[in-house]
Amino acid sequence: MTLPRRIMGIALAGGFTLAVGALSNTSVPVGAGDSAMVRLAWRATPARVRHCRALTPEELARIPAHMRRTEECTETTLPYRLTIQLDSGPPITLSVHAAGAREDRPMYVFQEWRVLPGFRTIRIRFEREPAPAGGAEPLSDTPALLVLDTAAVIAPRQIALVGYDADLRRLVLQARPAP
Questions:
Q1: How far apart, in Å, do the first and last CA atoms of the chain sit?
Q2: At a CB cut-off of 8 Å and minimum separation 6, what does 44 contact?
Q3: Any idea what the CATH number is for the domain that residue 122 is in?
Q4: Tally of domains in the chain
Q5: Is 149 inside any structural domain?
Q6: CA dihedral defined by 148, 150, 155, 159, rounded to 10 degrees?
Q7: Mean pLDDT, consecutive 10-residue segments, the chain of 179 residues?
């Protein structure tokens, strides 16, 4: 390597180091000033519905004797409908499905809205979709309907957190200061 190339490489490396150092000292505004936030965050077990049907004699004949069973069952989970209304704004409706490719995992809710600080009304409805006809009664640890209709004073830079309390089996509102 020639001397001019070596000097150019050292100069570029030094310039890059100085640029990184200068940029690391610049301040970047984070957040939206003095706004507040309403956050919905919880995990819930979906309702499972089991559908069973009796196997025909022809189907049983095709199955080896040690693997025979009299009925075949499939299990599905029911989605929930989440409706949120902040203050007198329009209601927002979302469908919440269980996680996993086969929807055999818990449901997760995570939504955030920036709001102006002050007095806020929060209305949330988390309702299980009806089970299709012909299935058994849905089994779930989560109630078929959860409702939260409350008001709160949210301070600037504060987060009002709505979560699901599995022990109380209801939605709860907590307020946490923003970081």
A1: 52
A2: 80, 106, 107, 109, 126, 141, 142, 164, 166
A3: 2.60.40
A4: 1
A5: yes
A6: 0
A7: 85 89 75 81 87 84 85 84 93 92 87 91 92 70 90 89 91 70
